[in-house]
Structures are given as structure tokens and as C-alpha cells.
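Standup notes
- HV: blocked on the assembly model, inputs below
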Amino acid sequence: MDKQIRTGVYICHCGENIAGTVDVEKVAEYARGLGSVVVARPYMFMCSDPGQGFIKNDIKELGLNRVVVASCSPRMHELTFRNACLEAGLNPYLYEQVNIREHCSWVHRDRDAATEKANSLVRAGVNRVSYHEPLEIREVPVNPDTLIIGGGIAGISAALKIADSENKVYLVEREPSIGGHMIQLDVTFPTLDCSECIETPRMTRVGSHPYIELMTNSEVEDVSGYIGNFKVKIRKKARFVTDKCTACGDCVKGCPVEMPSEFEVGLAKRKAIYMPFPQAVPNKYIIDRKEIPPCKLTCPIHMDIQGYLVLLSAGKFQEAYQLIRRTNPLPAVCGRVCYHPCEDACNRGHVDEPMAIGSLKRFISDQVDIGGLEVPQITRTGRRVAVIGSGPGGLSAAYGLSLLGYEVTIFEALPEAGGMLRVGIPDYRLPKEILRKDIEYIQRLGVDIKTGIRIGEQVTLEDLRHQYQAVFIATGAHESLRLEIPGEETPGVIPAVHFLQAVNMGKETKMGKQVAVVGGGNSAIDAARAARRLGSSVTIIYRRSRAEMLATEAEVQAAEEEGVKFIFLATPTRILAKDGKVSRIECIRTRLGELDASGRPRPVPIEGSEFTSDVDTVIPALGQVPNLEFTRGLGLEVSSRGTLVIDETALATNIEGVFAGGDVVTGPATVIEAIAAGKRAVKCIDSYLKGETLAIKEEKVPERLSEQEIVDLKKRFPAQGRVEMPKLAPTKRIKDFREVELGYTVAQAQEEAGRCLACGGCAECRECEKLCQPVAIDYEMQDEVVEVEVGTIIIATGYDAFDPSIIHQYGYSKYDNVITALEFERLSSASGPTGGEILLKDGRKPESVAIIHCVGSRDQNYHEYCSRVCCMYALKDAHLIREKTGARVYEMYIDMRCFGEGYEEFYKRLSEEGISFIRGKVARVTDQGITEEEKGKLIVVCEDTLLGSIIRVPVDMVILCIALEPRSDAERVARLFNINRRGDGFFQERHLKLDPIATPTGGVFIVGCCEGPKDITDTVGQALGGAGEALALIGKGRVTLEAVIAKCDETLCIGCGWCKEVCEYHAPTISKNGRVTPVCVINEALCMGCGACAVPCPTGAISVKHFTKDEILSMVNAFVEV
Amino acid sequence: MDGFEPLIIAFACNWCSYAAADVAGTSRFYYPANVRIIRVMCSGMVDSMYVLKALESGADGVLVAGCRIGDCHYISGNIKEEKIIGRLRTFLHRIGLEDERLRLQWISTGEGRLFAKTIEEMVSQLKKLGPSPLKERIGWNSRTFTVSSGSSL
């Protein structure tokens, strides 16, 4: 400060607002006594022209170089007085405003105390202003494009106004169509214009306007930048219907999934592929696909489970089968033997029991004559692939490769094809006929299955490598694990795999009558149940308890029903022979110890607890390992567990062109996992042979439902339980190997399929795809994220309708005929679910209707504010009811708010139409009638304040005038655009009276109901105001940047970078900037002046202009002066 | 101490708490005249040094007021300030200053009532505690002025 400070102080009376409490003359007197003060003037209204005149004059005449005005809040008039200084040639930042109104005269009663405080505040202001430095006022250009969020009548109006001025607008709408709530209304008050009729022409103009880029089904994800220069990321969510859609509606006919229609407020249903309403803009369909359902995600081959279930429900069995075949090469097999991990993931399990998906899949395949199915046309490539093993893995690989055009030959060692499906699983679970049919279909695709050929004997692996372009090894695991106890070699000990193979091939088993099966997996159960059917008495010995058995629960139960005995917590120690054959088995009891590698408790033998039992057959069923004899000498890498080692992604072994999958790689697993491996092999081998890189798709895990979601599910779906699968009686079963499960009837299957919760929304049954002639459906469509640059942002996100279920006493969602005003709009609309007829839920016309005002509004318990439009629409509704039904109408009101043009006249007109107005709050709505007149009606119990008593009004229908409340995601929107919300939840305007469209954040404006409830007239007015704001910025073309920003004194800066760490706006960068060591350089366009950087700065190099240490401490000093 | 009127220096952020103080004014929520407000752009701008200087120079209590967590106009300024005040509090304990002398209060724009209530509470607490112990140590003359702390709460 090289010049002497000459300060002018101005004390505003503000009429009586300040002078009424603060003695302004005394304050002026006090100010005159302060060091740098040259003049101190009290005046009536400093913000007025003469008031400002004093300032300008004194600057010129008295050579003031600092100005202080003690008046209202700087948030009110700081700009006014800064401009006054500017006009007089003084830098506007050499000005300080002292708040002696909002912070003093308006909040204190004691005159002396208030005046003393005012003195103190003025002193602080005078101290501070002497430290103010002149600041540069910089301007940046404004991007002429505008972003409008929300396509209701507000967004539409603003968009059209700006676009008509030939400036570009991006209009982003979350729903699939623009129109907002207005398009749901029947007629609008007070003119009773048809709402759709007045809005749709504007919607059409928006859709075709050359200056409007419309993005529906889209949401803003990120916003950065500042006024005039915003960068916005927008996610355009996939519709799964392309622009080729002609809106013909053929697709809808095929869709079997019904969901509640949002447009009809849940009063009607729509399909999963739908257009929200006929006049939608854009006039295109959209598929409502939610998250991939957990069943599909969990299934190792990701079948379209919801899809075929919903086709089953609709009676489309052939289509359901075809849908299964799209992903599953062995549908009938899986329907019978798959262990269905999908059922464990099924969300229906939270309500009662999971869907019986396996049984339903079996039902569908049983409806189809697979022998009569058409085989698709295949173009052969001439390339050849060899598959070793005709189990589920090999069959699936062959199926897929053949469809792609490869010539496939399967080499099977056993006399019949099927692998474990044929020789491991008994007929009572998987009948031979069923398996044969599925295999025959694969053969009809051109796959050649050579049985009775064991690789390593008639032909070697090396031979195959030369004769075929690729080889897939899917030989499974058919060797049994040994018991490793004395006596294992005794005749009568038959490994489970051999036993089952003999049973399934119809050969002699050499089994006795007293059988002990050792093990706890599915093979043990299969062996035990097969043995029962051959007439033996069977005991399963398992070394852990029942809970740890790996066999499926259903299998264990079936075994129990069939008379299989169980000994748990015991393990064999030796097998005793007599006459060279098995006679007794000695076991030792075990107890459960600590968890082992498999996550199950280790069985620990209990010393001295040996016992023996009489047996003549012992069937060890401890698990299998692969037989890798045929790979010897080739150098195929083998793991320590005896399985083939492969590259997980490419399924490739260490030998070129040789792939492997299924049990031979994983060890014994399940059928569906083998099928999954076979299908992966198809992709891997195909990519390999084409020389392409393999596309890797990420495997997703289904999200777990939250507690709340489970509660909601239970509410929506009443518990009923699974339809039981009919089974043969246990006594009948063990007589032969007939299939135990008999399968559902059509009625049972459809009832069970009806329990599906439709977690995925669209079931992906693809029926719509079949019907779409323009080929506009694209299931693979992805979301698209775009980035746009705009200068102005207008937020027009509208309101949510209050849900009155929370007001229990009004009976909404309890009584059928208590509806909300929005639901009434749909009833009354000619395009609505009742064709414009006002009807009760049972189809009758109401004879009396009560309309309850202020539901959720003007209520301390919910929203204190008035929703502004309800009184008028209540009158409108009354008029419509009288006109359409002649019913008696009662309006229970508190006040009648008819403030607008034509509103009071409308009210007067309607009060002559015979509507009863009852002034009073409604206590409750009940169906408990007392008198004869009240029977069968809804009784509205309310106070009639004019009568001074409580009355009971029996009516047929009750309409609730629900509040307009802020959108449920208003919080997220506020954070995204850096705006605030008021106490009532709506967005905060810059000034309630004088700046109701701007927000404190420059360049971001709020219009329509997102700013507060209002009718269409006011909404459009505000929207046009928003357009005006945008056009004002665009017109000027440049905007003044914030001058109050951070600055770095490079002589003090040590380049530590702490400032950069804490800045949310990426304003500081550390660079050499021509110096020896790096220093902080602040980007003046990005800096918002918050001062976060100044606090951690170790040397005090960074400070915020206009808020320096000196300025702030000078105020502290003033305050502590006595 | 009879007639003792504590001095509170408040740092209030421009976007929320200062606006809340304005709303207290427009709504006429009366509170005692013991407070002097310094406007800052963000509560995160309040360096520990300002608080210490205020207390050292003769304030009996300091209020740092900002936006509610999640609502900071500069996104995380208030979160940073919360940490700074936390550390500062530890230091103040060591020099024997009572907790009530430094208050961190989040007040959103619409909460004029809360602002007035905060001042009321602080004044009442500080009256009970008496003048700041720092004042004695630096030989500061206690101030007395007549105030009737009328309140509409």
C-alpha cells in the first residue's frame, strides 16, 4: 500500500429495517473516528440511485480509494455497490460490504447492544478494506450450445424457444419418450383443453427440430467446467431396438411378458417390448431389460431360463424348446440330470421355494419330437476336427463345431456313445432312450461317432494330429480311486464306476445280496440305488456326517425312501475274506475335526472304535481320476492330481492344436460344467483355426438382493410353494429301472412356471425378433457414452407424485377404490385403461365420489408446503365426474386456492354445478359402515368446521389430491450439477423473489416443478425465462470470470504439490514455469476460489485473492477491540 | 461471572451457513448479540491459524460453520475442515481450552433457526464457563457490555 488509504463509509437506514434498531447516526460518528476514514454518511436507502450517487461522487470529489457500505447482506447488494464503484472508476474489489441488517438489526432487540455490534462490524469492514487489492476482471467466451435436462413441458418449451433462435440444444430425457407428467393428464384447468392435444404438437416439433438433438432413455453421468464452458458426459442407454423401427407393433403380439405400465400409473399392463404411449416421441419401441437374472448368470452355459419359462407359461412349447437349444446341445439330458445351480440362485427362493427349473426344462423337451426336428442348413468349411470322448463335453464340442461348418469325428472307446451319461448315470434317472435321441440329433448334424475305438490302440493321438486340423480331448474321468486298505483286491470288491458301467450296459455285475457302498457323492448314491433295484440290501458307509455329503439332497432322500441304509461317521479299515470272497468289512468310527482343504471338517478316527459288519460286496465310490494312458510318450502336461493341464482361456494343452476340457481337466465335476467346457472349446478351436484372437467375455456374478428388496418381493408375491414333481412310489421304484420322476402335466408345468418372478424383465425369449420385419431388434446393443460441450445448463427434471400409502388412515393400497389424482387422470383419459370412463374397480360407475385435498401437502408430517395445483385440479376432476357419471361429488378442502387467470371464475362456475364443499381435514377413510346407507361404501370421516362437527360421508370412490414432491433422485442431480436444495427438497434458486431461475452456480438454471410445485402456465413461463437466461449468455457471447481465486507466490512456493492433492477442480499444476525448481501454477479458468489449497500450503505461498490472511485477521483484530 | 458477555467470532461459509444467518435475519429468529461473523468462501478456507489467532486475541469462543457433509459447494471443503478442526481440538485440549470454546457446526442454507439456536447455545455455554483462560494469561482486560439476549426460540 504505497498510497494513503482514503475510505468512504456509508451507513444505510434501510428505512426502519436497520435504523429501527441500530442508531445509524452513532455508527457514522464512530466510523468518522477511524483512521483511514475520510467521510462517513448515513442515508435512507443506499442501494437507490441517490444512495449510489453519494458513493460515485465521493470517489471523484474526495479521491476515495476504498468504499465500505454497512447495510444488508452482501449476498443481496454486493454486486450493486461494486458496480457503482466501477462506474466511478474505482476497481470494484476495493469495496467491502458490512452486514448490519440480517446479521444485526433483524436479529437483536436491544438498541445499545445492536449499535455496539454495528460499530464493531463497521470497524472490521474498514480494517479489512484497507487490505483489499484491485483485482482483474477477466472474460471468457461462451459456448452457444445449451443442455436441457428433462423433457417435460418445461424442458420442451425451453428447448423450442432456444432452438427457434437457431442455437443448438441437447435435450436429455431419462424416460424412453419426452412428455413428462403433462402427457398423462386428461384435460387441463381452467380451459379444459385436452392435455395430450396441446402437448403433442410441441413434442413432434422437438423430435424433428434441426437445432435440437434429442437423447431419450439417457442420463447425465458427469459434469465439469464452469459457466460458458461445461463438459457433460451423457449415457445413452440401450433400447435394444434400433432406428429401423417403424412402430408397426408386430413385436408386441409375440411378447409373453407383462409388466405394469408406468404411463398408466400401474392401472394397466404393458409388454416387455413396448412404446410408453402411442404418441411417444421418438415414436419407437424399447425393450425393458433389467439386470441379467441370477439364474442365467449362474448357469454355466448362461441359458435363457426366464425366456423358456415364460414361453412355457404362454403355451408355446416348441418355441421354448428352440430357445433351450440355442444354448444347450443336450436339453433332454440336462432336464433330467443337471444339478441345477440356477435353482440355488433363483430369487423365488426368498419368497418360498426356488423355481423347479430342471423339472420344467424336462417338461419342455418331453413335448417335442426330437426325431422330427428340422436340422439347419450348414455350409461346410472343409476343415476337420477330432473329438476324443462322446460324453457331454465331447458331444457339446462336436455339436457346436459342426454347426460352424467343421467336419467332426468323435472317437469313443466304449461300444455306445454318451460317456458318463450312458455308463455312469442309471436309467431310472436318465433313460437310455432320452439320451439316444439327443445324441441322434447331433449325429444328424453330420457328426460321425466311431464307437469301440480306444485311442492308443487302434489309432494314436499322433495319428489324429496328422489327420485332423485340431483335436479336442474330452475323455472324462473313468478310473476309480482306491480304498487303499487291506483286502481291496478280494473278489467282491467292485469299484463304483465298473459296477455302474456293467449295470448300464446290461452286463453281469457279480454283485451279492449284502452290499456296502463306501462314499458320499452322487456315484455312491447311484450305485446304492442301482444295487437296490437288483434286489440287494444296501448300506452306504460315509466317513463324515450327512450334512457334508456331496450328493444332491434329492438323491440322498430318494435313496432313503428306497430303503438304502446309512452309516455316518465311519470309514473302512480292512476287508475280510472267507473262501476267497468278501465276507466282512471292518470300519472305524470317526469324529469331525478341523476343516480341510475342501472346506469340510476332516474325519478323525476314534481309537479303539472298530466294528465289523457282514457284507458280500463292497463298492468303493470315492471318486474318479482320468485314464491318461493314451497320452504317454506325447509329452502332454499332466498335473499332480493326474489331470491334463491347459491354458484356462484358450483350453489349449501344451501341444499345438490339441485342446482339452471337462472331467479330464477338472477332475470329476458335473454334466453342465462339461457341456460348458465343450462349448468353450468350440470358440477356442474356431478362433485357433481361423487365426483370430479369442474374444474373452467377463463372467459376471449375480448381485445379492438387499434386505429391503427381499421384503418388497415378499410383499408383491404371496408364498405358495413349489409344484411337487410326481414320482413313482418307493416300493414300486426298486422293482426295476423305470424312470422315477414322472414329469409334470401341462397344468402342473404352467402353474409352476407361473411362479417365476421375471427378474430380468424382458425374458429374452426372442419372439419379438422373429416378428420384426424391419429387423430392428438388437439384443447386443450397448449403452453409448457421449461427451458434449455446452455453455448453459437448464435443469427441468419435474416432480414425483407423493405415494399416499404411508398415510394409512386414508386407505390407499388397502381399499380398491381409493385412488390418487394421477390415477384418476388415466381413468378419465380417452386413451386410458377404461377408455375414458370413470369406473370403480369392479366396473360399476360410482354414484358418489369424495375428493380429499392436501394429501401429503400442508402437513407437518410429510410436506409443509402447498402443492399449488391441487385445488384447481380437484375442481376439474369434480367437473369431469359430474359430466361423465352424474355422481354426487364432495370436496373436502382446507382452503380453495384459485389464484390464477380464470381460476376463481372456474371455481364459481363449478360451485353452481351441485358439488358439495366441506371445509375440514379428513380423519380417515374406512369401509366399516354403521348405518344401512353406509353398507358397502367407503366412509370418509371428516370435520366440517363450518358446521362445527365430525361428519361421516359414504361414497363409492375416494380421490386423493396428492402432493407434488421433489424427484427421488434430486440429491444425486444436485450433486452432479453442484446446486443446492432448499429445506423442502426442491432446488434452490439464487433469490426467491428476484432471481428464481438462476442458481448460485453460474450457468446452471432451474425451471418448472423441480424448482417447486407449479401449474403448467407458470412452468412454461419459467421455462421461457430459462431460455431467456441461456439466450442472454449466448447473445453476449462472453462471461466474466470469478476474480476471487487462488494465487501462488512463486518465490515462496516449494513445489510440494499439496495444493494439487486437495483441489477438487484440478486447478493447480506443478511445473517449472521458467524457474529452477517446479512451482505451483493455478489455472485461472478452473479455480473456484474455495481456498482448500491455501490451508495445507506449508510456506503460505498460496492465498485466495480478497480472502488473504491479512484481510481476515484484520477483522479479528477489530472484533476484539474493546 | 455476573455481567460477563462472551465474545464469539464465527467463520461462516458464503454458500450455506452465511446464507443461513441471513435467513435467520429475514425470518427474525432473534439471538444474542455476542457473535461477530466473518464471511469465508468455504469452511475449508478456515486455517487453524485463524481460530488460534481469534482465541489468542480475546475471543471466548469460535464457531466454524459450513455446509452439510455432501452439500459443500466446493464438494469436499467441509470434509477437509472437519479433519483440521479435529487436529486443532487435540492441541487445544493440551493447552487447557475447554471443548465448548471451539464449535464446528454444519448449517444448510434453509436452516436459519439452527443458526440462531447454535449462537444461543454457545453463548449460554460460554457464560457458564466464563472468560477464556487465554485472556488471563495474555493480560487481556475483560469486557462487559449490556446485552439482553432475547430469543424467539
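- HV (later): unblocked. Chain B touches chain A through 57 residues (CB under 8 Å). Helices of chain B lie at 17-26, 48-57, 77-94, 112-129, 133-137.
- Next: hand off to the docking folks.
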